[in-house]
Amino acid sequence: MTARFRPQTPRDRLVLAVDTADVAAARAVVDETAGTIGVYKIGLELIYAGGLDLVRDLVAGGERVFLDAKLLDIDNTVAGAIRSIVTLGVDMVTLHAYPKAMAAAAAARGAAPLALLGVTVLTSMDEADFADAGYRGTVEERVRARAAQAAAAGLDGIVCSPREIAAVRAAAGPDLLIVTPGVRPAGSAAGDQKRIATPAEAIRAGADLLVVGRPIVGAPDRREAARRIVDEIAGALG
């Protein structure tokens, strides 16, 4: 088995969310940020717009790729999807952190180098949204439970907001990879994210990987915006 991805440098910890339905625009983002980004995240919007060809090109070019597929289905379908994703050669893939789906994914992945990440509670949700969705208890309680289940199922990491990092570490131990979206540099608009932090705050809380999208993609100088975030990560690692 080839070792699964673990960040080694400040740049490794920066994940750029290439969230667009325009493949040509996505390629331009990659071209303008190459060499400053640790991992490129390709999500549902781009996947369904033909983005898998870009994924293949990124993998062939030696870039790290995070396929944000957020899988959730019956066990057999999740397992089949994971086996297909393994053939793409990406480094990471997400699935919703439901116990049966996570167990099916881990069994189907086997010894392949694909890292499996369980999505706990979306960072666009606050406590009111969580209650409206029919869940009992708090967001942190649910994240903590799902993190423990992810570790038990053999997943490599989870996705949670910066607010739940300490709870995840307490529930799942030091080895589970914590991937944190909802990261906004100071002064950036929150957009549709509700449980957010700056890059330095997220790193100091214990995040391993930071997912950043619009603050880089929408910047006048994308390369410089990425460099500033990497510098902030390095400072927080101190």
UniProtKB/TrEMBL annotation:
Pfam families: OMPdecase (PF00215). CDD domains: OMP_decarboxylase_like. Gene3D superfamilies: Aldolase class I. It catalyses: orotidine 5'-phosphate + H(+) = UMP + CO2. Residues 13-229 form the Orotidine 5'-phosphate decarboxylase domain. The keyword Glycosyltransferase does not apply. This is Orotidine 5'-phosphate decarboxylase.
